[in-house]
Amino acid sequence: MSTAAESPRDARLDLRLPQETRALLDEAASLAGTNLTDYVLGLVVPAARRDVLEARQIRLSHEAWEDFLDVLDRPDSPELAALRGHTPTWGEPRS
């Protein structure tokens, strides 16, 4: 998987921040031996990936998971069985 540092840098992100914050970030990047862009991306991109992954996950308690499995294991109702056996009009071959 490619990282932000390996991908082409063809987009910009401009931020407004206090001068003191900019100076702090510049110093931190310097102490890390990198430039400001690589320093910020190295911190922000993993955090963004984590936040997106967490937002996409569904977390269930053990009890809720067991309830979910019970629903999946139930036999189909007659209505659902009929629906499963129905071929929609968009699934029929054209003549």
Write the layout of secondary structure elements.
Blueprint: H1 19-31, H2 36-56, H3 62-73, H4 78-85
Helix pairs in contact: 1-2
InterPro entries: Ribbon_hlx_hlx, TacA_1-like
Keywords: Toxin-antitoxin system
Family: Belongs to the TacA antitoxin family.
Descriptive account of the structure:
The chain is mainly alpha-helical and 95 residues long. It has one domain. It is 57% helix and 0% strand. It is built from four helices and no strands. It has helices at residues 19-31, 36-56, 62-73, 78-85. α1 (19-31) crosses α2 (36-56). The longest helix is centred in the middle third of the chain and has 21 residues, at 36-56. The two termini are 46 Å apart. InterPro entries: Ribbon_hlx_hlx, TacA_1-like. It holds the Pfam family TacA1. Belongs to the TacA antitoxin family.
